[in-house]
Amino acid sequence: MDTPDYGGAWGDSTRTNSRPASQRSGKSSRTARSHTSERNPDEVSPLLARPQGDEHEEGGDDEEHATATTSLLRSLSSGSSSGKKDDDKRPFWKKRWPSIVALVILVIAVVFIMLGFLATEGIEEYAMQAADFKPTKLSLDSLTDTGVRVQVEGYFSMDASKVEKQSVRNLGRFGTWIAREVETGPTEVYVHLPDYDMVRVGTAKVPGIKVNIRNGHTTHVSFFAHLEPGRFDKLRNVANDWMDGRLGQIRLKGKADVPLRSGLIRLGSQTIVESFTFQGDKLPGVPRYNITRLNLREQREGRKGMGADVSIMVTNDFPVQLTIPSVAVDVLVDGCLESDKHIMVGTAETAQLQVEPKRDVEVNVTGRVDTLPEALTETCPGSSKSPLDALLGDYMHGQDAKLYVQCCNFPDPETPAWAHNLLKDITVPIPLPGHEMGKLIRNFSLADVHFDLPDPFAEPGTPDAAPKISAVVKVDINIPNEMNFPLNVDRVKADADIFYHGKLLGTLDLKKWQDANSTRIDAHGSDGPSLLVQSDVQKAPINIKDDDLLSEVVQALILGRKGVTMKVKAAVSVKVDTPMGGFAVREIPAEGVVPVKPIGSGNGNGSGGAHNISSLAPKIGNLSIVDTSRTSITLQASVNITNPTNYSATVPYLNINILVNKTVVGQAVAKDVYVYPGNNTNLLVTAVWDPYTHSGAKGKKIGRQLLSQYISGCNVSLTLQAHNGTIPTQPALGAILSRFPIILPAPHLSTPKDPGELPPDEGDPPDDGKTHFIRSATMHLLTSTALFTLASPFSSTTMYITTLNATAFYDGQPSGKILYELPFAVPPGLSETPRLPVDWSIGSVGYDAIRKALGGTLRLSAFAEVGIRIGAWREQVWYRGGSIGASVRL
């Protein structure tokens, strides 16, 4: 009959391993008994005398000593060695602990019996090397009140070719040929642990067995044995040492008195003492397993809590057959510290299992969690995490989490009490293979984004000095198909890192819990179910980490046409409400992208150039003067802009320099401004015109030139540029924005039309659409005076002309000159000057043209040096006007 290969013959499997002297205690004891029997004939003597000359070879042969037990255990453990890396992953080992203990005891018993067959001094060495036992079946027949009844089947044979020494081989073949068969009587084998104060592992009661011991003959062996475990408390200590990894090796010592007979000849009783050492890596491991089904649900029958249904396929490489009764265990997790007591979270129970030799076993487990203990969800001292956070965090970051299963209760009342007593209080660590949860969150996004610039009086470097963001945070969380129970998120917080081109730009601080709500989204197509969590976050600080990178972002927003995309990586924490109670799940990894639209398209070619942000479409109106000093004018204006982004912002304070030809001539200040997406009208801005204070004499000269061009109706532009003090609490941000100056056309003068204004004559230049300071004039020839209609650029401020030195021209030729040094007022809107004396240019072409136009009109041009006073501010400007309609009177 073909038999399975379980690691080779017993002799082969052990002969290649050298055994230390500590493992040869059995040999030494037999040698001692042999010498004692010569002195005391009443002691039990060996069947055959051992030649004294062989004693010098005993040690070497003993190192190659092979036993059936070693081979059997190795054959058992070889099947599980491939799964050794999965040690302690399931509580199934605990369920098999009684059978494993029983099998160890049984196999040791078989070894002693086989040794007894051939344990005569002359052929003992032959027996050790030639004996071969191949087990084919080891089955748990039944549980008794004191132990287990086990059936053993296998094949026993003698193979002389395995014996190394020819003299021993010849002697053994001759002796076994004569004896033919050997039979043992009923035997009790006692197994102890020498390293644990000789605690008894158990006792095996084995019936008589007959085998053929001739070379090459095979005997089928089948018998039932009764196994009784030893002291439970000591055995639990051994089991705990093994499961905690403290058991580097285990040494067993067995003893048996084996009665022998060959045919009708009784050979007396042979006392056998033997030691076996198993290294830790040779001990049987927990079988490999695969979770084939997992369903998490509410408990049935309306009970509060959560239930779990799990199906596990366990690889069975052992040639064992047994029935495992229904088992219930407690499931525990680590506390805050390793020294803390484990925290119980729920229970699990299996149905009765039928294990067949070399056949995988399907284990169905039903779990239950009624409620989560406070010790599991409370934060640990000196930490922001709870034991539950640590467990889930390890799991979701791909690291092995650790559960503990504490044995055992047996729901079946027919299960013997000794099984519970043996396994109770044994705690088995179960590694829960980590699962990288980077895709647990399907999407992370921000909507209705609003930025708050910091308060100008905040202390730099403090949270109040950081820009803040308010937004609706949306987190789309994937829900595994196995989670079939209600789940609601009511609070959320996060720590988010913002990246641009793979570099860290800054962090988004959402450390405070925010109210949230969640909506379950059913599976659709290839997408599984998910949970959409939304939270309205208010004023979360943004901490910029890389100013140069921020400069790149700003440049892309100002100069680019496609905008920028920033990546957000967040550790999201949520507070959830489940059937087993509410708890927090912290630091779930999440990723998302936030696209930002460009502010406008520039026409410059690099940082430092001025750019026209056309998409902002700024317009300035309602210009008024609110204050003056000797060198400055404070103006107030309404500004209309278009915000092309989807974001809004609150600006408590913003200060921007006003430049002309790269020279600072003033500053614009905005306070408490709220900017919406789209059109924004009537934003109140204050500007201080003070060229001398900012840039000295050079600034004063440039400012005078700009004002002169402005009141003359020329196209003039101002440059707005940020600086270190633009946002006082964020000087770095202001410095970055300073690289992107903005060119803004000066606002046109807004003045009412003069109903009496003369229409243009044929040949006059076309109307340029601009408003002019001098709208019309009336010349009086007899009195040599002129009266002018003036258009003030201000809606509520009276301006004074302190001096006037003007010359009128016709077709480029001078017509007359006005020199007037008495101040007069120019109120808002249209007004007339006093009659101003004119010194006519008699005989000139210009004067002749005026004289010929008596009673009619003509168009003149003028150039004037004008002294202006507004409040305390004084300035000397020039004015150039063309195509002034003039009426000529006597």
Automatic annotation (TrEMBL):
GO cellular component: fungal-type vacuole membrane
Domain Tag1 C-terminal: 483-597
Biased composition (Acidic residues): 55-64
Superkingdom in the source lineage: Eukaryota
Domain Tag1-like fourth Ig-like intervals: 617-733
Signal peptide (UniProt feature, chain positions): none
Residue span(s) of domain Tag1-like fifth Ig-like: 767-878
Region (Disordered): 1-67
Keyword Transmembrane: yes
Gene3D superfamilies: 2.60.40.1820
Keywords from the named record: Membrane, Transmembrane, Transmembrane helix
Transmembrane parts of this sequence: 99-119
Composition bias, Polar residues: 13-31
Keyword Transmembrane found: yes
Protein known as: Pre-rRNA processing protein
Organism annotation: Didymosphaeria variabile
